[in-house]
Amino acid sequence: MKRKELAFKTLLVVLPCLLLFACRREQKQVSGPLYRDATYGGETVRVENAHMRLEVYKRLTGWGWVEIFDANGTMMAVLDHLGEVDPVGTGRVFPLRLESQEYRLDKGEFGQRLTFPVQMKWYDAMRETRWAESPWVTPHLEGTVTITLEPDAARAKLVYDLHPVKPFSARYIRGLWLKVGAGSFGVAKTDGLFPGVDWVIGDEWSSGTDYMQHPHALRVVPHPYKASAPVLAVSYKGTAVGLAWDPMATVMSGKRYVQPVYASPNFVDRANNHLMGLSLPSAAWGIQENRLPTHTKEPKGDIELAPGTPIRIEAEVFLAKGNSLDALVAWVKRNGLPEPPQPRYSLTEALDRIARAYNNNLWHEGRGWGRTPEQARLHIPAFLERYAKEGSDIETLKSIKAKLDWIRQQPPPPRTGRGGLANFPQWDNEARLEHGRQLLSYQRADGSFAYDPEGRHKGDLIQIAAALHKPLGRPGDTGLDLNMQPAMELFALAELTGERRFRNAARKALDYCMRMERPDGGDWWETPLPSANLLAAGNAAIAYYLGHRAFNDQRYLDKAIYWIRALLAFTHLWQPEQVVSLYNTKPCLNQTMYYGSSWVDNHVQWEVLRVFAQSAQLGIEWGQIDPEIDWNRYHRGVTVAVLRWMVDSKDPSHPGTPPGADAERAKKGLMDTFFYDVHDSVKGDYRGALIDPATIAANIYAVLDRK
């Protein structure tokens, strides 16, 4: 009897605990929304796979908003609504959402698809107010929003198909309005990336004034042509949230270019999260750049809507392991790199043109090669050695060979300049050793190389920047490229001289930079030191691969692949209709001297060409090293692209403006085959200094060799 009583009493104690545990466990599984800025209507629908979970909630007024979770159950982002419209003339101060009273869930090989029939109309709760007779009580815009979670990927496709029912004007239509970190990690982030526009790390603000000044610093609603790839990303602790779209898709009435919006932190909504959005109208055709339409009347560019003018927005939200660059790389892997367009000239014809320019305009009898007699020197461009053996223009080939023979008979010119990989093979061994010892004298005990604006990094623009605003960098600062450039040279010198200490010093520089994830320190002669830079990424890729080659260290190979992939963040991977930009590259995401040229607005091609010319010189084949990305196509793309930049005095349609010093020479054809420094990403014209075409020829040979 006592045993039964004891068992019964134990059950009375244990049972409530078990029930409480079960309730809490169940509550954890279906605890309701985490997002605090929406009123929950009590209904939830979920779609999920092994990689991603979407929970869609119903507001009191209708479906819905979407909470997005990764495989570990961390809420990464919130889709604030199924769409939002700000119609003109409603007499109220808030926009109207696209909401649905029902949904349909379909499952198949495509994954899981939720379809919401949506309407834009007055809220039922307002019917009894003074707006009861408003014409907006009846729907003016309706359609469907579909959310499709793929079967085995952390990727969801969203399609907005909307149709005006009545004519009306709207200040804006917002499709995806993704708030990364909302309801979870807030404004914390590892990094954020808007390719070609912004790359921020830690607590930096996008559109910040760290590397630019207003008005150029404001990049929240840039002209769509400035986006080098249609991807937005924010990462946090090893997971990146990406938003991608087709920039050439027709969104309404024959208009393309849906408008990307990017704010990290979310200064648009003044909220503790990060905003990645797509909206209409676009800065390409409807609104002023960086003037986001709100429910105020100030920005002009209202959208006129009427029956028969459908609206369609397609995009995808995805998760990727790693940081924001990994999100961009994941998008490239899925979609592949675009096929380069037909070249302005065939590659062999371009070689012939460049060789003829060196044989005629750039040759100065008794002096050597240069754009003017005063600038001519006896240096032999490497590509000419090869052209003299296998060029297709026989007469030019013979003449160049004679010029080369003459130069070889002259006394060697004195060594000048800071060196460089292209020059080392022509130096004698003592000159190589001297240069290597000089580099070692600059290296600090921790392996790094310091910025020295009063010494070896001194330049006019650096002094002007420091006097006008603030220093481009402070003495003793360092950065990726400040270490990678000497590391590359030390590895090359070690190979040529056999000096192990050069190789070991280079390794120390690599180890120092292992923690870095955003390329910086390049273009130190004119731009802020810590800002994102293409040349820094390319030099780092080469340096780390040389380190892998020298020490067989897998860490260095991984870093080499990471840094060569960083070039994708600067490369134009889509083609607008009006401006030919495919495979053009942004050099950096900053502004010269803080107040000069904005490189977010402009392309520069010489830096990416140098990276691949040096890679070819060192026998580095990125297509073999990183086969997941088609680097052979990429290299062909950036090489074909620069042919568009070349001066051709017989092409009156070319939108180029030579600088004053070369304008008259260009008219006479004396600058043919030189290429411009700058291409405007929106206007499409070419300008800036004219650059020697030898690097074009070096890249053409490298591309042709693969065939």
Helical content class = 25-40%
Terminus-to-terminus distance:
93 Å
If helices are DSSP runs of H or I spanning 4 or more residues, what is the number of helices?
A: 16
The biggest beta sheet, please? Answer: 19 strands, antiparallel
CATH architecture label name of the largest domain: Alpha/alpha barrel
Shape: elongated
The structure class reads alpha+beta
Beta strand %: 15-25%
CATH class of the largest domain: Mainly Alpha
In the CATH scheme, what's the topology name of the largest domain? Glycosyltransferase
In total, the number of domains comes to 2
Number of beta strands: 24
Mean pLDDT: 91
Poorly predicted runs:
8-30
What is Rg? Answer: 30 Å
Mind explaining what this structure looks like?
This protein is α+β, with helices and mostly antiparallel strands and 707 residues long. It has two domains: 41-335, Beta-galactosidase, Chain A, domain 5 (Distorted Sandwich); 347-705, Glycosyltransferase, CATH 1.50.10. It is 30% helix and 21% strand. The chain is built from 16 helices and 24 strands. The strands form three sheets. It has a 19-stranded antiparallel β-sheet that branches. A three-stranded antiparallel β-sheet has the order 22-23-24, with no helix packed on it. The longest helix is centred in the first third of the chain and has 28 residues, at 2-29.
Throw out a few tags for this protein.
Glycosyltransferase, 19-stranded antiparallel β-sheet, 2 domains, Beta-galactosidase, Chain A, domain 5, three-stranded antiparallel β-sheet, alpha+beta, elongated, 707 residues, 30% helix
